């Protein structure tokens, strides 16, 4: 870097209008072209893992739900799944289906939120409002299910706390059809609009090989042509719903938009299918044992694979909890995507990985100031 | 564009989606997890709720037959409602109002 005196450093963040959450990216630019990027994370470290080790393992469920504001229900389900694996608890089949439905609802609202924010980031502000208006349908369903718009609090170790009656099921079916119709109204803008395509096609290129080598997850790797999706493993009820991941070969920002757009349609179909086959029965079982031994559990969040590890010692405390959320493995691919592009493309490319920083912050490095 | 036009006309003649909060109170949806109300006639001070509470918002004083509930520390998960063997916690369906002071509610037998 030092032998190229013409490079300018542009700090981007931690507080920036484009970024919803604090992350700093230092851009080394030559005129308008980005030559190098240096990331700096750790602005909202909260010590979740340490708190999880000090807590009673049952209370950790509520802590894990608060790691992220958007994919909270999937965090809760992943932690519950991990403890159920450690204590050999088999949850009832109806609880599995209900968890699947609510996880897809969470994915739907997260993807719609992202699509709206992305539309705003590339300059389509009325489209942003239109998408968020339709997202309201999903949030109202969440509210009707458990009484709250965001924090579900519906998962317990051994099942779920809320049930769905006939009236709610028919409301879900009706609203899913309505949402699909509303999405058809604006989906073509993301596929065909020339102004939109000029900001996304051939921007932020991540070739198939680089996506594998840099360890990308979720929609980022699926947009590079690799069908990597944790739902393939068939956890909860996904094994019975004939799930096929959405894959695109575009390898650019447009591919990531299309993957998320098609996943919205896929989520609607999965919810409808799960509601049709919803089995009868109890919704929770009591977990009798304390967690013992080691276990890992992986699920698919809207942003990609989330990884939980825990080590128990047959007491109410866990010895070690490790959480890896999907934005962390997506940061190295992001750095590669940005190099060679113009400064004006930064918002679209940074947004294309759907960064969620408060999920990511598991480590922080405090520098000593002399 | 035609779909946008429909929304514009709807918004022009429709009612606002929001309410003027301090003057008008929104109707809570059924199933809202609201404030806790401890029925001390049913309570036997077993402290199950205190042990279950993830945010340590409940303190039970068995000698005084008194329960303190900190509504500002509570995360409204209702884990205590499910834990109570005697169904002594009867939650309200409401949305807790903001306040100037972090007050603690006390329930006595």
Please describe the structure with a list of short key phrases separated by commas or semicolons:
heterodimer; A: 370 residues; Cytochrome-c3 Hydrogenase, chain B; 3-stranded antiparallel β-sheet; 13 helices; B: 109 residues; Alpha-Beta Plaits; 3 helices
The CATH class of chain B: Alpha Beta
- Largest beta sheet: strand ordering of chain B: 1-2-3
> Any low-confidence stretches of chain B, pLDDT <50, length ≥5?
none
Q: Supply the helix-strand structural class of chain B.
A: alpha+beta
Mean pLDDT of chain A: 88
CATH class of the largest domain in chain A: Mainly Alpha
Summed up, the domain count of chain B is: 1
The share of residues in helices of chain A is 40-55%
Quaternary structure: heterodimer
The count of helical stretches of chain B stands at: 3
Pick out the low-confidence regions of chain A: none
CATH topology of chain B: Alpha-Beta Plaits
**Globular, elongated, flat, extended or rod-shaped: what is the shape of chain A?**
globular
CATH superfamily of the largest domain in chain A: Cytochrome-c3 Hydrogenase, chain B
**Order of SSEs of chain A, N→C?**
EEEHHHHHEEHHHHHEEEHHH
CATH architectural type of chain B: 2-Layer Sandwich
């Amino acid at each position: 870097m030092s032998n190229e005196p013409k490079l300018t450093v542009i700090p981007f963040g931690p507080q920036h209008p484009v970024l919803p959450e604090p992350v700093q990216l230092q851009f080394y630019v030559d005129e308008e072209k980005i030559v190098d990027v240096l990331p700096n994370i750790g602005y909202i470290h909260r010590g979740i893992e340490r708190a999880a080790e000090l807590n009673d393992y049952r209370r950790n469920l509520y802590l894990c739900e608060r790691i992220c504001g958007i994919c909270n229900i999937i965090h809760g389900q992943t932690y519950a799944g991990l403890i159920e694996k450690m204590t050999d608890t088999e949850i009832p089949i109806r609880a599995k289906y209900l968890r699947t439905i609510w996880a897809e609802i969470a994915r739907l609202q997260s993807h719609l939120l992202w699509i709206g924010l992305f539309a705003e980031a590339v300059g389509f502000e009325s489209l942003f409002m239109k998408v968020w208006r339709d997202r309201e349908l999903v949030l109202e369903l969440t509210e009707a299910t458990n009484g709250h718009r965001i924090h579900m609090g519906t998962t317990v170790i051994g099942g779920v706390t809320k049930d769905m009656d006939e009236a709610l099921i028919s409301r879900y079916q009706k609203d899913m059809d309505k949402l699909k119709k509303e999405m058809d109204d604006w989906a073509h803008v993301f596929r065909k609009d020339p102004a939109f395509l000029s900001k996304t096609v051939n921007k932020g290129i991540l070739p198939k090989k680089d996506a594998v080598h840099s360890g990308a997850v979720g929609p980022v790797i699926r947009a590079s042509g690799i069908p990597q999706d944790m739902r393939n493993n068939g956890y909860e009820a996904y094994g019975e719903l004939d799930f096929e991941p959405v894959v695109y070969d575009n390898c650019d920002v447009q591919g990531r938009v299309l993957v998320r757009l098609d996943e919205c349609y896929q989520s609607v179909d999965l919810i409808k299918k799960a509601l049709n086959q919803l089995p009868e029965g109890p919704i929770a079982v009591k977990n009798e044992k304390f967690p013992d031994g080691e276990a890992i559990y992986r699920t698919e969040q809207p942003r990609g694979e989330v990884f939980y590890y825990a080590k128990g010692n047959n007491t109410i405390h866990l010895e070690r909890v490790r959480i890896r959320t999907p934005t962390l493995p997506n940061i190295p691919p992001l750095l590669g995507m940005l190099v060679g592009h113009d400064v004006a493309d930064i918002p679209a490319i940074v947004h294309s990985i759907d960064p969620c920083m408060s999920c990511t912050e598991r480590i922080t490095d405090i520098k000593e100031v002399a | 564009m035609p779909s946008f036009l429909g929304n514009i006309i709807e918004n022009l003649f429709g009612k606002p989606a929001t309410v003027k909060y301090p003057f008008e109170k929104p109707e809570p949806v059924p199933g809202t997890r609201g404030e806790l109300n401890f029925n001390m006639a049913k309570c036997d001070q077993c402290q199950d709720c205190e042990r279950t509470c993830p945010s340590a918002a409940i303190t039970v004083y068995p000698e005084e037959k008194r329960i303190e509930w900190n509504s500002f520390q509570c995360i409204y998960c209702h884990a205590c409602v499910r834990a109570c063997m005697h169904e002594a916690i009867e939650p309200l369906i409401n949305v807790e109002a903001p306040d100037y002071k972090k007050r603690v509610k006390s329930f006595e037998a």
